[in-house]
Amino acid sequence: MNIRINKIITGLLFCLAFNLLQAQQNNDSQKCRYTKTNYGYLMVLREGDNVLAEIEKLAREQKIPSANFTGIGFAQDATFGFYDFGEKKFHPKTFNKVEMGSITGSIAWSENKPSIHMHGVATDDKFDAYGGHILALKVGTGSMEIYITVNKDKLERKIEQPLNANVLQLPCLK
Fold first, then answer.
1. pLDDT at 25 over 60
2. What's the topology of domain 32-169?
């Protein structure tokens, strides 16, 4: 009889733990990712969030004409790219479990979709620093804060030759 009661109690505890875990995961996925500020938006991203995708999503949802941003936080994966002008492509290098000491970038538009240009500096547990153009960035343990300053004018990016680079286009002043 005691073995059966123990199995029932163990089963109930397992079900309770599973339901609590599910509730926590649902709560995490429903947490607010950004809020409006006097200058634009403040994003707080959490473990596993794709930073570039979340900024693109915000730009689309809020119809941001253009913006610049800065940020800090812990990254699970940070992929930097060094542009080879001869080959006209980025050579990527990924760093895991790094602190993003600085993130900076801009939001513009290209072919009716957000175009994010991001650079940053990451440090590892030995305080060695790596930096440059960010191709991919995923939030690690903790969070990442991104402060977005919105500009009133819509800006576009276009591929310019001969470098095949996606360049921000500025309106000429009259």
1. no
2. 60s Ribosomal Protein L30; Chain: A; (3.30.1330)
